[in-house]
Amino acid sequence: MPGQEAVLSVNGPLANTIDDIELYSKSLIGEKPWLRDPKCVPIPWREVELPKKLKIGVMWHDGMVRPTPPVARALREVKAKLEAAGHEFVEWDPIDQKEGNELLGRMFVADGGLTIKKELDRTGEPWRPEMEAYSVARDLTTSEMWKLHLERSEFQGRYLDRWTKAGIDALLVPTIPFNTVRHGAFKHVGYTGVYNVLDYSATSFVTGLTVDKSIDQLNGYEPLGDICKAVNDDYDAELMHGLPISLQLVAQRLEEEKVIAMTKHVLEVIA
């Protein structure tokens, strides 16, 4: 959405390996894009030496939607392997995630959905069900937008304070609450969207694990709300059997080099 700068857009390459991601990132930064794009930060690629013992926060759910059984299992197994390799884990309280997700939604529709409506009018496409929030949104006034920016900055400050106090290098969290979904069934962006609001560096990586219908069954879970119930009710172990499971590793703002280096190490440990 051109002009929407409350939540910064990101360069999110897809690749077969983390080495490809590193090559892409180094190559892009090596071209000094800040000489062509005034929004680019003039920081060259920085080599990172990781501590031998990483301190990682694990977030089992975001307080809104519990991950489906295969994703929850992947979190447990990856955590166990990293602990066995000597790394330290602490529990990360999802207390701030809901506010971050709500900020994301409010900022995306702050123009009353007019930018999206213009594109739909141009192409003749209808509003999709998942775009309902854009179709009914109200165009915020300038003063309302400034207040929203202030809320975002205060949220970023609180999250940073918690991170600094915990002394962690990264967060291990789901990328999405499911390993994958049927077309049109995607319902919750909170696991990634909050880190867009925070402008943090993150990777999504394949764990090497796959869904196993014999163990990844939805038994006795308590939904955290309506969306959580809808997501987990839609989970089909038979349909998902054999498909890969991914997780997300999150680092601080402007720590792209570090999150790539940590992801490379995580993949080596869990291989």
Automatic annotation (TrEMBL):
InterPro entries: Amidase_dom (IPR023631), AS_sf (IPR036928). GO terms for molecular function: hydrolase activity. Keywords: Hydrolase. It comes from the Eukaryota. Residues 3-259 form the Amidase domain. Belongs to the amidase family. This is Amidase domain-containing protein. It comes from Bionectria ochroleuca (Gliocladium roseum).
